[in-house]
Specification:
TIM Barrel; about 475 residues; 2 domains; alpha/beta; eight-stranded mixed barrel; about 10% strand; elongated; Hypothetical protein af1432
Length: about 475
């Protein structure tokens, strides 16, 4: 272990000691406190540990607030070690592991010193860690939880390797609360909280008191509410097997903007917009498909790039479904050049075989101008896609330029109004008429609440734009979807 220049502080208050912890340690302590309180309430109801004198004295409803403090301050001893040793690292030497584990016994002494404030300075000055006795039960609960929360029922814990009822009942609860939070925060799964509970239940009789596991089962729903409350801090985003690797330095991908539903105002779908990085001399900047499409066409990469992005969209839909998010529809911005390539039905068939999503989960845009200028071959390609249930949205749509019969002939069912025609009386009349023909009207580029209200009032079912929310990454989309699901 390298020589440290860090100097141990003398803490005058609880707040000063707590602030000396790393932010992530403080955040975890807040979560553990909330879990511990829920477990404690159920433990009182189930007469947990009442067969021991210590349990009879402490496991009582009047100490629920003290139990919260036990969870809040159980890692307080980490304030007495350098910041780099406040979290256990896999490459710690044996000496460094011992220094890390010492926070348990140091924590008990620190709590005792904060209790006996008048004697504290003398004890710290002499580096004398002698604990002053007390009969105050809340103070004893905090001392015990600091020292013993890493002990395990079978003796495999530390610092003393206590077994069974040698471990304070309060410390058992805090230890289980901490492990629940750790597992729920690090398990990469579609249901990290449930899997965390399952793992703990599987350790009944070994790491954990079987009676305490029964308490956990009874408190599961209440603990789940704690997990949901702090999901922004705890969530390890679920991960499915993907066909598209999302490397942090990849040169292209999709960003996602919410599309709101006219009836509920909730998110009904997401607009997926391609981005491309690697702009010379502009690190971190991105270009859009319209900027790069001519180069892709010139190099013959339109088809490959489009299907890369479609696979990424399909991966995202599958992940949303696996996370039990109700919204699983993406409107993917496609370059007009894609439709001039001829039929890609073979590639589409392979896509839906590789990723078992429904075709209606993907809506692909084609601009009005591309349809107006399309050759006979391109129109036939569009018709093939429609006959094979590839959903196409006529984008940047100007209703005054089209007869409903022609739109029906081309096979379009979804029309997305051009932003510049919104707020016009003639557009409102046309939109209402098109709805009677069975067309689904969408809105794009919504940048004011008034524009959103106008679109909803005139028949648009979904709208997107700056007002509906920012463009986010896939992980942010999943996180927000899980939060909405759990509200």
């Amino acid at each position: 272990m390298e020589e440290q220049k860090w100097k141990r502080e003398v803490y005058e208050t609880w707040d000063a000691a707590f602030k000396a912890l790393l932010p992530q340690v403080r955040q975890q302590s807040v979560r553990v406190a909330a879990y511990a309180r829920e477990l404690f309430v159920k433990a009182c109801a189930q007469s947990f540990a009442k067969h021991t004198p210590e349990g009879q004295a402490r496991i009582h409803g009047r100490y629920a607030d003290a139990m919260y403090k036990c969870g809040m301050y159980h890692q307080l001893g980490k304030a007495l070690v350098p910041p780099e040793y406040q979290q256990l690292q896999p490459d710690f030497t044996e000496e460094e592991q011992q220094l890390y584990r010492k926070y348990t016994t140091d924590g008990r002494i620190l709590v005792a010193m904060l209790q006996v404030r008048s004697a504290k300075a003398r004890f710290w000055k002499k580096d004398n860690f002698e604990e002053q006795p007390t009969e105050n039960i809340p103070w004893l609960m905090i001392r015990e939880s600091c020292e013993q929360h890493m002990e395990r029922w079978d003796g495999s814990g530390y610092p003393a390797g206590r077994t069974g009822d040698e471990i304070s009942a309060v410390a058992q609860i805090v230890g289980l609360a901490k492990e629940l939070d750790t597992l729920a925060s690090t398990t990469r799964s579609e249901n990290p909280f449930d899997e965390a509970v399952e793992q703990l239940c599987a350790q009944s009789g070994t790491a954990w008191n079987p009676e305490l596991i029964a308490v956990l089962k009874a408190a599961k729903d209440d603990c789940r509410a704690v997990y949901q409350k702090y999901i922004h801090y705890t969530l390890t985003l679920p991960k499915t097997i993907q066909l598209v690797e999302r490397e942090s330095d990849r040169v292209m991908g999709l960003s996602y903007r919410p599309m709101l539903d006219s009836l509920t105002g909730d998110v009904a779908a997401y607009e997926a917009t391609p981005w491309f990085s690697g702009i010379l001399g502009q690190p971190g900047e991105v270009e859009r498909m319209a900027d790069i499409a001519p180069m892709l066409r010139r190099t013959g990469l339109i088809g490959d790039v489009c299907f890369y992005l479609l696979y990424e969209a399909a991966d995202t839909i599958l992940r949303m479904r696996n996370c039990k998010i109700d919204v699983t529809t993406l409107l993917v911005q496609m370059p007009d050049e894609f439709y001039a390539l001829g039929s890609k039905l073979k590639e589409f068939t392979q896509l839906f075989e590789d990723q078992p999503i429904e075709k209606e989960n993907l809506l692909l845009t084609i601009s009005e101008s591309a349809v107006v200028s399309a050759t006979k071959a391109t129109l036939e390609t569009i018709a093939k896609y429609r006959r094979n249930h590839i959903s196409l949205v006529l984008d940047n749509f100007h209703p005054e330029a089209w007869a409903p019969e022609r739109l029906k002939e081309l096979g379009f069912t979804h029309l997305r109004l051009a932003p510049e025609v919104c707020m016009l009386e003639e557009t409102a009349n046309s939109a209402q008429a098109l709805k009677t023909w069975g067309f689904t009207i969408l809105g794009a580029g919504v940048d004011t609440p008034e524009m959103q209200s106008w679109l909803f009032a005139n028949g648009a079912e979904w709208v997107s734009g700056p007002v509906t929310g920012p463009s986010v990454s896939e992980d942010e989309l999943i996180r927000d979807g899980i939060v909405r699901r759990q509200q």
